[in-house]
Amino acid sequence: MPKRPRLVVIGSINTDLVQPSPRLPLPGETMHGGDLTVVPGGKGANQAVAAARLGADVAMVGRVGRDTFGEALRDGLAAEGIDVRHVHFTPGASGTAVILVQPSGENSIVLSPGANAKVTPADVDRARTLIRAADAVLLQLEIPPATVRHAIKLCRALGVTVFLDPAPPLAMAGKAKKVPRWLFDADVLSPNEHEARALLAVRASKRPMKDAAVAVALARAGAADVVLKLGGRGAMHADASHVVTHTPAMKIKPVDTTAAGDAFTAALAVARAEGQNWADAQRFANAAGAVTCLTHGAQPSLPTRRAVNQFLRS
Hints:
By secondary structure, this protein is an alpha/beta fold. It has helices at about 45-55, 70-80, 120-125, 130-135, 145-160, 195-200, 210-220, 260-275, 280-290, 305-314; strands at about 5-10, 15-20, 35-40, 55-65, 85-90, 95-100, 105-110, 135-140, 160-165, 190, 225-230, 235-240, 245. It has one domain (about 5-10, about 40-95, about 115-314): UDP-N-acetylmuramoyl-L-alanine:D-glutamate ligase. The strands form 2 sheets. The chain has a 9-stranded mixed sheet, sandwiched between helices. The chain has a 4-stranded mixed sheet with strand order 3-2-6-7. Strand 11 and strand 12 (about 235-240) form a beta hairpin.
């Protein structure tokens, strides 16, 4: 058995309000949908829970509000075996996400940051001992950019591997905004197609860049390793030498894609911390993402190691 990886996740902790919808409503339109469900979420918390269920020892750094949701969110993480000593309570609201899920399984999300907007570089520094001992640190972009940048800089100083899931992107496609160069200081950059396009400041066009060209362009921008999440087309890895490897997706019929990307990134970090090569790690991550798509909700859908292994065997 591989050693249990030690991971630190620095990021968002949300409550997800999930609304099934036959389609996205038009402006001014009122529609009937399915029953609303309230589940824990947030990209940071999702990745922490996913990593813990996949066999890692996980510590979480973040903030929740002193509201109806805050204590339940913190307790939920602790119930997964996650170290929550650095999950702090903050006056005001917890982070929330309103998620419309269509019959195809595709979703649209509106975020309210709440306490996540108050995660500071000082919060990261207080977790320095945990970070120093970690095999890897996982970051996303649902907390303030200055805090993410500080965390990357600290990890580099300590020699700790950083996985950055650049979602939601700081700069959208277009010439009006510059993409922060420090994003490419992460050891492993793991965007989906939309995020990759934003990172490269490339507008969608009738002749989009091929997947391999996107992965290589991101690697050339500075990231040591790039793993491009391609949904139904699988995943593509480009290293610092611009060698590209594609791992096909598993064929499934998704019911809800919420948190699939978080499961993928967490699984990738777990597998790499265990010493798996990139091809095996991508296959494991593809499987974790696929299993997540078979169940509704963010954290309720995140699979255990046993479930992923059974899926791979099947």
